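Example 3.2
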Amino acid sequence: MNIETAYFKQKALITGGMGFIGSNLARRLVELGADVTILDNFDPDTGANSFNIADIHGQVRIVQADISDEAGLKDAVEGQKYLFNLAGQMSHVGSMQDPFKDLNDNAVGQLKLLDVCRKTNPKISIVFAGTRQVYGRPKYLPVDEKHLLAPLDNNGVSKRAGEMYHIVYHHVHDMATCVLRMTNTYGPRMRIKDDRLTFIGWWVRQLLDGDEIQIYGDGSQVRDLNYVDDVVHALLLCACNPIARGKIYNVGGEPVSLLNLARQMIDIYGSGKYAIVSFPENRKRIDIGDYYGDYSLIHSEVGWQPRISLRDGIQKLMDFYVQNKEHYL
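Structure, written as tokens:
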């Protein structure tokens, strides 16, 4: 299906829409002519930031509510054609510090949201933002969707519960749900004030402040990264394509070592330095080692593949924060 026509004058709800990926998705939906509603609890620890939608504020409806708020959900869900479910707790370290908040946000809250949809708007098309963290430490590379699921932290466990609730509601209630297992998404509007949500954002902050980028371990660890516009495109393709219903897909990109990533960021920014440091104990126990995903299934079934090179994406990332750093500190 052509996304240029699939969303025109259609109602789309984004949970977690004040955050990084959600706000970029909202901007793209507005460009496509959609009628956009954002639901967010405005928790700053999730990356919610009013500046993220400052330029489209008058073009979207905003509902301040939590996904555990059934009354707020019912009002937001009614009449929507699409639901992009990006709400939840994403911090791996945070999930270990407060496991019950993590469980409530990523499992209980997701179940409440799905049940409100079942009762209020069972025909809504839902895409859930999952995570590669459900795989744990890879047994082989690239990791495909058949890989063993053995998460190393509470966040991986709760996100697995959330994604399975979506799949169960497809199988049992015939709801149009899909799961995207995301890897390291980066780009404009991500949280950079600390390393709570993303190491890439924190590296940006260290560069801008003239500090050393700190690389844990020996720097040889491999990751794959996706520029946020590519992730937004995957969300849009899956929400409007009947083939994606009931499916779980990896999204992924070109593998790069953390050391080479740091060197690229420094080269593109034009200055900076890095240091190899030992893992903090709270991170060493939950580190997954090398990871990059096999995204051939979503490519063959839905037609998605990453389109923005790592170098071009890092350039866009750094340009944005050079101009807008003060809004993200």
